[in-house]
Design goal:
The chain has 205 residues and is an alpha+beta fold. The chain has one domain. The chain contains six helices and eleven strands. A four-stranded antiparallel sheet has the order 3-4-8-7. Strands 5-9-10 form a three-stranded mixed sheet. Strands 1-2 form a two-stranded antiparallel sheet.
Length: 205
Amino acid sequence: MDTLKSMWATIPPATPGELAGARRRLLAGMRPRRRLATAPRLLVAAGVAAAAVGTTLIIGNDTPAYALAMSPDGTLTVTVNELRDPEGLQAKLGAAGVRADVTFLATGTRCAAPRFAAVDSTYDGPPAAGPEELRTAVNESRSPKAATVTSIRTIRISPEHIKPGETLVMEFRDNANAQAPWRLGTWLAQANTPVRPCTPVEDTG
């Protein structure tokens, strides 16, 4: 005990500034840390294409709803963070040389079919008899090659698989799931043919 007293006697007393700093550090360590939002949060939104209204996904206030980038090889990378302003995304694709029809849908809905004449059977063809037949149909179709989902928020569009006058039809459906924010259906409509507006219906499939 005498040894401890001798050691304490050699330590100079803390100044008021040092005590205040220690108090701040102690309080900072006790204060709960604010969690960073790394996944989209749910918002209620309206005015999406074809009067489809529902819950949409957003990452943060400073994150754009969508972004588009062009690679040197001509492919486009579309990032969709929030299901909002489909007309704006459609216009951006048009400015990049891709004729598109974009629809954002609420959870549990889809566009009533048929809306257009498709270039291949992935849209309105007969149901596949099994996984192998479905795989063959997809491999022989251009629609899946024209637009491919590459991550939970990005799509790669390859204009080389879209012929002049054809329309890339994109139907996004809110998935209400941070790990898979949306589901996407993409098809090619025949050249110079109309794509009717989307009529949202319940998706029972």
